[in-house]
Amino acid sequence: MYTLVIYDITDDEIRLKVAEACKEVGLARIQKSAFIGLIDSQKRKNLKIKLKRILGSSKGNIQFFTICEADIANREIIGEEIEYEEEGIVFI
Amino acid sequence: MYTLVIYDITDDEIRLKVAEACKEVGLARIQKSAFIGLIDSQKRKNLKIKLKRILGSSKGNIQFFTICEADIANREIIGEEIEYEEEGIVFI
Fold first, then answer.
1. Which of A31, A33, A52 is opposite residue B78, by nearest beta carbon?
2. What is the pLDDT of residues A26-46, one digit of tens each?
3. Which of B5, B66, B82 to mutate to test the interface with A (most CBs of A within 10 A)?
4. Which residues in chain A (12-51) have CB-CB distances under 8 A to chain B?
């Protein structure tokens, strides 16, 4: 089962921390504010706890989706791959 | 089957057009650059054609996911609902 995480976070520092937590757990960045990957339910649970703590009472919205193999096969992409800055750089 | 559309688009005008096309087809905005909804495969196909035309050769990345009912039930949200500006306003 794939985990897709998408987020809208205004604060640069918090947004960077969220991205780092997603990377740490093994998710891959597919867009500026979207990560996906195959992680087990325990890792997904831990990630949710961590992201909840990172966001705290700040303004923002993070959404988790589980996507099965059959649905992942239907994923379609328009446009080019966007190259993202290295870790440590704030993503605008 | 749900359709989730997420996008990274730099150009304000193009990003607004993409959002409008998603709304027109019946998808609901769930984040600044994410729409979801129950639309049939023909509408999804038409939306893809339209978004491809809107993006053209501009820099950007649009991803389509299909998500089954079982997986939608697992969707989890952290943080508050973000209120988005009305149509016609450029989303930053």
1. A52
2. 999 999 999 999 999 999 999
3. B66
4. 30-34, 48, 51
CB A77 within 8 A of CB B61: yes
Range of the domain at B6: 2-73+80-91
ipTM of the complex: 0.89
Low-confidence spans in chain B with pLDDT less than 50: 86-92
Domain count, chain B: 1
pLDDT for the residue B70: 96
- Which one of A32, A64, A76 has the shortest CB-CB distance to B48? A76
For residue A39, give the CATH number of its domain: 3.30.70.240
pTM, full prediction: 0.90
- A-B Cβ pairs (cutoff 8 Å, strict): 119
Is B89 in the A-facing interface, judged by CB distances under 8 Å?
no
